[in-house]
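ingest -> fold -> write
write: protein_1
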Amino acid sequence: MSSPVEFLELLAREAAAVEFEGPLVAARAAGLPPDRLAELEQAKSVALRVRALLERRRRRETELSGLYDTVSDLAGLRDLDDVLRAIVHRARNLLGADVAYMTLNDDERGDTYMRVTDGSVSARFQRLRLPMGAGLGGLVAQSGAPYVTANYGEDARFHHTGEIDAGVGEEGLVAILGVPLRLGSTSIGVLYAANRSARPFVREEVALLVSLAAHAAVAIDTARLLTETRSALAELSAANTTIRAHSSSVERAAAAHDRMTALVLRGGGVEDVAAAVTEVLGGALLALDAEGRLLARVGEIDEPDRADIVEAVAASRTEGRSVRRSPLWYAAVVAGAENLGALVLRPDDELVDADQRILERAALVTALLLLFRRTVAEAEGRVRGELLDDLIARPLRDTDALRSRARRLGVDLDAPHVLVAVGDDAIAATGSARQRVLSWATTYASARGGLAAARDGRVVLMLPGLDAGGSARAVARDLSRVTGRPVTAGASGPSNGPAALAGTFHEADRCLTALGALGRAGQGASTAELGFVGLLLGTVGDRGETDVTQFLSATVGPVVDYDARRGTALVKTLEAYFGVGGSLARAAEQLHVHVNTVTQRLERVGQLLGADWQRPERALEVQLALRLHRLRAPAG
């Protein structure tokens, strides 16, 4: 027999709604009176309401559980793209929709664009951009209020555009629910759930998507802030790395500065500075003087072309700092307006600003060292020059004091020395050129344990050794390279003891004069090599070369000219004839010819010079002329 209790049993086993008609059907079949049927009908209505209430609570519990799970999932995400995909996927699942998607506002362009989709199959739909106020999403983004439509294509509430309708149509969407993503009073985008068939989204579903959107907006902002924080941390880390690198560079520069300062204080040289730079910066380095000559080399590095050095040093001087000519760095070594040279660095790694400052500071220290070295050399040169000037002066005073002064300079006056006099042709008109020659001579002599000085418009070198002629030729050759013009050098010696130096100097000076008289400017020779003719010519004065030329022309000129025209050997025959004391047979033997040939040649000489050429006074003149002729064009 049917009773209200049956409805409680149906509620207890969560029966379907259609099963609640069973007790009424059974009661009617049993013929219960109308009042009983009315009572059962009322009990059925109450039971169905209770069932609906319980169903709503279960669904709400499921939704709340889903929201809780969503919040929990979002809290564990850190990447913004992961957050957005999780939000859309969970929205689709919670609402049982065919498609879920999200658009975000673009403040720069003033519209909203598709950011992420779940369940979408249309590429066109996935690229949609919605102007504010256009379509359902544009209206939600503009107004900040939820909108729902059971059939979007037929809903006249929305401003339809061809692009939006085409995208929605291609995706096949019919029912659409859109709710705003809000941060405070600001809307940042729209979250959607959509079906491909008509569906009236109920109020609870709208509330559910609104709740999900609220959590999603917070998660999006959190992810954005986290991304910005990470970016800021990365920038801070990069800045910290830069600061550490800069600090390291500054410390390295300070250490290099202290080291180079210590080098200067303890009397270090350019080589020490070059070594310090390469130890700090790595790589290899060249130190060059103003003429591009090598002062120091550290590591494996080739010398650049002269033109490249000149250009780079000029640029460094103009800019006032080091310049790069890949792969080399150049720093000009200057003192005021004077160019003293350059440092050329090939680093192992790229140079930062602080590293460049180290190279530039090294160039400054190098300039100081070169100036100091020059000052010391000039002071020492003056001392050495004054000593040599006193040694070659007459009368010589206090030889013991002179020996003591020489010993302090590392010079032994009792050892054999040669004196070399350099001619006026080495000294240009300007004072700087004269000083340059004297500076070179001082350095040249000091390096060999000798002395140098300027005296009577000439430069004199006192060099230890026995070979006066070799020393003269070496000085003429090396100084010619420095001045860029031929240099004449006359030498004499060796001398023995300080008392002989003055006489040796005057012999060297006469030898220099004789070389000029013989037309041998730009050469070097000694008095021993010129013999008695050199001693004679050393006293002829300023017109010596002219007088020698006239003497040769008047004495043996016809014989010399005859040989030049005919290719004969009359001059050679005369030298052989006088050399063997006038013996025809011995002259022939020396010349490897027949005696008759010698006789015929001498007869020709008599025709050219006159019959009295063998008279004693004429013969002496001829022999002297032959000797002068030979000295004017020495062999080799």
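write: protein_2
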Amino acid sequence: MTQTSDALLHGVGESARRPDATLKVTGEFAYASDLWLDGMVWGATLRSPHPSAWIRSIDVAPALRIPGVRAVLTHEDVPGEKYYGLEHKDQPVLAIDQVRYQGEPVALVAADHPETARRAAAAVVVEYEPRPAITDPRESQHFVRHQPVRRGDTFEAEVVVTGEYEVGMQDQAFLGPESGLAVPAEDGGVDLYIATQWLHVDRDQLAPCLGLPPGKVRLTLSGVGGAFGAREDLSMQVHACMLALRLNRPVKIVYGREESFFGHVHRHPARMRYEHGATRDGRLVYVKADILLDGGAYCSSSPAVVGNAASLGAGPYEVPNVRVDATGVYTNNPPCGAMRGFGAVQACYAYESQMDRLAEACGLSPIEVRMRNAVSQGSHLITGQVIDSPAPLAEMLRDLEAMPLPGPRDEDLRGLPGGVSQTTHGESVLRGVGYGVGIKNICFSEGFDDYSTARVRAELIGGEPHVTVHTAAAEVGQGLVTVQAQIARTELGIANVTVATADTSVGSAGSSSASRQSYVTGGAVKAACEAVRERFEGLPPGEALERFGPIEETREYRHRPTYPMDPLTGQGDSHTQLALCVHRAVVDVDVELGLVKVVELAAVQDVGRILNPQALEGQIHGGSAQGLGLALMEEIQVRDGQVLNPSFTDYLIPTILDMPPMTLKILENADPAAPYGLRGAGEPPTLSSTPAIAAAVRAATGLRLTRVPIRPEDIALFDKG
């Protein structure tokens, strides 16, 4: 289960070929759902149909009577602690006396066949006593976190614009469902092969629930079919391990698509009220904001999401006076947690919508109002933190404005909103152009001990120098395996590099989230390689290895420290690095049918230093696509706590037909504090693409459109007043 970079002949800065590329294109790549062991049985989960209810009784006997059923477990069978959680242990392994959201796990079944397991789970009889559900976050009295940001005392201005905005619940919509294989071990422990984002935190949550020491819970990364934040939390990990330990047999669990929608966290829906005050020439005097985030039934990473929304709540603009309140609350809606952009996405949609309103009120262009308020190196965030590395936002906006616009609309029906299904033949199609700017923190913030570990071994194999890089960093499709090999080759000058499969036998690498792995794991690999190189004593690699034998070094890498936000004022150096992206969107809108076609997206992003040009472009395209989805189509529909569209039939994500051509300009202004000067790049495009598209639709229609995703009925009412 190793990935060898025999084809990687390039180092940092070049488009080295991904070792998994051909296998993924041909369908031969082994994902976690492909795992198989002789003698394994299949697990299935019984989930609550109610968003809020007491559990009065559970009868497992009907399930046990089904031929082929090996075990049925409830909370009474949890061998250790009954609660786990990413930040707080508030989530039960299996529901105990109540359920708090639709889809909460209640019982587990293991059987010889997956269909038998599913039928047996459905046969478990649970007596529920439904109770009123809290589904409106404005009515919740249970706070996850409230984070104010206070700066200055002037809240009067010549021009004042206000707005109320809403962001729907977006799903990460990865293509590989939750899956894994748990194998009992001879030492009484368990080996888990799993698709995840964070091996060590999975282990540290699993071990107490299984009643085992961490050393007896060993995790190995299996093929991951996308993540985007949803695999930070546990899903089926503890359930598969419980069944495997009970039966002393391998147990495999694979969610179907519908169950996947219930089995992981989502992006927090948000309700936001903003007020911007400025001078008549458009220079910001103050920003007030109330940001309410629906965290759903359990904590997950909501406290950190609230912190991001608060600290970045006014955007990358110079604002001397600020009064921001970000609040996350518990409800009986599906749990929400990490998703690409992590709190900054919701705030960005609101503050960028406000900047367009301010531009209109001051008689300025959308670009000009942003340039007049743009941060630069030396500026302060609203938390008081100084931006101490390049932040060329004004230059980026000028570059974006200078990019040529696409030509006039093609009269071919296939180029119209709705494509060949277009029925109005273009007579009601209007074009609009909009802009969006986003700022995103990179790496973990607020004092988190954020580090990664790398073990690098150089040796002669068949007479040729060879390097093995081993980290616990999860490759979730972003190309991290490729980058680790590029770094090793650059630092050691050795072409043959193997990146070992990530597992918990090496020190933690943290999560593959927060655009952090190139920074921290890249930094750890670089440091370990430097330590190996020092032991070459100036000799060429082959000669050094022949003289000294294999050389192995392990290093941890930490970025510079961060600090918690002050709980009353929000002040503090809470972030280690900040990244900027700006987007321009061009859209065609059919105002009779309510259809939108994104004609073009243009983006400018500063990435500090390019490690792999092709992979970087993929990240910007992918982030922009998820932002497009949030702007126009992606939303989990929840009514009274019930999910109405848990399928890719009804939950729509952009396809290749929805993604327009993209024009990119990538800047390299090195961050002196980061390895190679790099700046995390995966998340920023998700922020700015959404408000740019929404602004373009507003420009085409003249409608306010204060909610995303924009629905057809929001537009089709245009000509009806």
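write: annotation protein_2
Confidence is low (pLDDT under 50) at residues 1-8.
Residues 620 and 685 are 6 Å apart (CA to CA).
pipeline exit 0
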